[in-house]
Amino acid sequence: MTKITVAKGDGIGPEIMDATLDILMAAGARIEVEEIEVGEKVYLAGNTSGISSDSWDIIRRNKVFLKAPITTPQGGGYKSLNVTTRKFLGLYANVRPCRSLHPFVSTKHPVMDIVIIRENEEDLYAGIEHQQTDEVVQCLKLISRPGCEKIVRYAFEYAKQQNRKKVTCFTKDNIMKQTDGLFHQVFDEIAKEYPEIENEHWIIDIGAAKMADTPEAFDVIVMPNLYGDVLSDVAAQITGSVGLAGSANIGEECAMFEAIHGSAPRRAGQNVANPSGLLQGAIMMLNHIGQSPVAEKVQNAWLKTLEDGIHTYDIYKEGTSKQKVGTKEFAQAVIKNLGQKPSVLKPVSYSGHTTMNLPKYKRKAPARKQLVGVDVFVHWSGTDPNELAQKVKNLAPEGTQLSMITNRGIKVWPDGFKETFCTDHWRCRFKPVNGTPFQKSHIVNLLQQSMQQQIDTIKLENLYEFDGVAKYSLGQGQ
Ligand code: NAD
User: Fold this and answer.
1) Ligand 1 in contact with 277 (CB < 6 A)?
2) Which of 261, 279, 280 to probe ligand 1 with, by most ligand atoms within 8 A of CB?
3) Which fold has domain 108-227?
4) Residue identifier of the C-alpha nearest atom 43 of ligand 1
5) Would you state the CATH architecture of domain 1-92+240-343?
6) pLDDT tens profile 373-426
7) What global pTM score does this model have?
8) How far apart are CA 327 and CA 20, in angstroms?
9) Strand-pair category, 166-171 with 469-470
């Protein structure tokens, strides 16, 4: 018997969770449910995080969490509880299988069977955002070596365990040479350890277009957080419905299982929602806790039900479907089919699909790190970069000089184009003059000077070389 934490969530959450648990229990899952309240109700009751500390204790104690969707306020309000949970619990791998169920669920892609493995903790989802000037806000994109190593290794181990043939990596490293560049580099390093599995890299834009057009060309796809968020919804949708896909969020200690869709508030309380996405999450949970025979039984009964044409409104189609049913009736139909297998769709076999024990991340010996300059970001509402250059040149401590000014990344001084549009957010790069070593004290002097001369410095970024290689971006056009 495994104790699991269950949250019924918001919107259609309670209905699809009840349906899912009914199916699991009828299939003989050896689980004991401990329910917690999370999301909108908790938030409206005055707990601004949307979850109480007692609930966190329960989640951490049970380690396995089955969660229905939660409503997240857009723009203001509390931070997404989903994102918080994934990060607090170190759930670094988000696994989303997307498979078509042709001819029973209408899709333009009858032979699609891909698994998207999305990095789940970092990238732009670090959620570190600041407004810096009247006109400019920023979001920090953080990519770490441990983050990349863990997710890429997970993708290859997953492919190995599930007999998949290829792992593809999507990044935009032609533009983000440092962040996405690291992800790609780590992918190439780790791929070498799995010679039996084919590997390839695509630039995300054309890769995404190819995936949406010819998904059968892909098998397992691994990618950074934001791209994975967007593309896993695309992948699920083109199998026929976002309502059909579930996801596993896996960490070294804990795991959370859910549907990929949201709380669909407009559909709540009408017994119309499709419980399949959450059920798919629950099936991955059963595999994770070592109950693969039950997982297999539920999945085959679910496939049989879809094959029988018993469909909820989102996938119901005149001609292919036989009966339009509500949430509860769909669950009853799956329960009736427990023990049966689909006859047209391929029945599943989950032997060996257990928790993977991945090696722990090992920190490498530190590189030789050398400070070689600084980018000083300035809020200035003038328009002529030459005028700004004259002002900030005077900030340079002895042995250093202003080497470049950019605006939104494009070089505007020296030799800028008058056509380039400029905002009030300027990056002024200071570097040492002919070989003088650059020191932290130079930065302190620069800041003091900028205060004295009433230059509004809003942020600094140190420029470093690691083992002699410059690890900062050039200005566009530089
Ligand atoms: P959504 O996925 O909730 O719904 C979009 C549309 O898809 C719905 O209107 C409905 O037509 C359809 N749909 C989704 N799930 C379905 C199902 N099971 N059965 C039938 N049809 C289904 O997306 P949204 O409207 O953008 O988001 C609603 C709320 O959910 C937001 O507050 C959002 O932040 C939140 N959300 C939560 C999660 C999560 O908890 N993991 C994920 C995504 C969105």
Assistant:
1) yes
2) 261
3) Rossmann fold (3.40.50)
4) 262
5) 3-Layer(aba) Sandwich (3.40)
6) 999 999 999 999 999 999 999 999 999 999 999 999 999 999 999 999 999 999
7) 0.92
8) 10
9) unpaired
